[in-house]
Amino acid sequence: MKRRVALCFCYQGTAYNGWQKQKEIRNTIQEVMEKAIAQIAQHPVELIASGRTDRGVHALRQVAHFDTTAVRDSPAWLFGVNRYLPEDIAIQTVTEVDFDFHARFSAQQRFYRYVLYPAQIRPVFLKNKVGWFFQSLDVKVMNEAIQLLLGEHDFSSFRSADCQAKTPVKIISHARVYLFQGLICFDMAANGFLHHMVRNIVGALIYVGVGRWSIEQFRILLAEKSRQKAPPTFSGDGLYFLGAAYPKNYHLEIPDIPECFWGNNEFINQG
Predict the structure, then answer these.
(1) Which of 9, 21, 101, 191 could form a disulfide with 31 if both were Cys (CB 3.0 to 4.6 A apart)?
(2) Choosing from 54, 73, 154, 187, which is the catalytic residue?
């Protein structure tokens, strides 16, 4: 008898080539996790995540599901699979769910945060954990600019050429730039994100924050629906997938974000 199991897990993406398993690319988080789960399930599994992350991008509360014929209780999956995972990946919770649950398609909202270190000297002790920009930035004007993204828009101007999404139209329900303990946080919530979308938005906002662009130029970039005049994609080091929101009837066990992590998480609690 088949069962569907949902996992919530976290990882540091620095050492991996992104989430998605691909024929021509090895050492992905999906590949590593599927091998670990198969050790406990005693058969191959396919793990489907709520969202893909790029190389170097981190996740605090990624959700994924797999189907299995193995009979295991939640602690067996949790502690058994973690035994076979490297130190930079860990399952946090396990929930057996109905077959109508889908980690990707059942998600109603997704939450991202980019954490940026603004200083002349690179952040040695936060290497690979935060992005870095060597000039001072106007947080207030960047926050004004990001408000232009709220609502439903065609985000082609912030879309990677490799993006496989069926449509560039997404709905952003929350967007904020603010200071937190000397770091700049870029928070976004949406029904979905395009490939490189957050990193491209951050790159454009930095142009605004340093005074290279006006807020009006940022607005024009959004309206043009083209990458031709857009700033470069910013580094993936400071990007965190904070998780996804699901209907309560699935009774998923999703842990709180650790207090030691940077930023204000109220927008997720309201999502």
Answers:
(1) 21
(2) 54
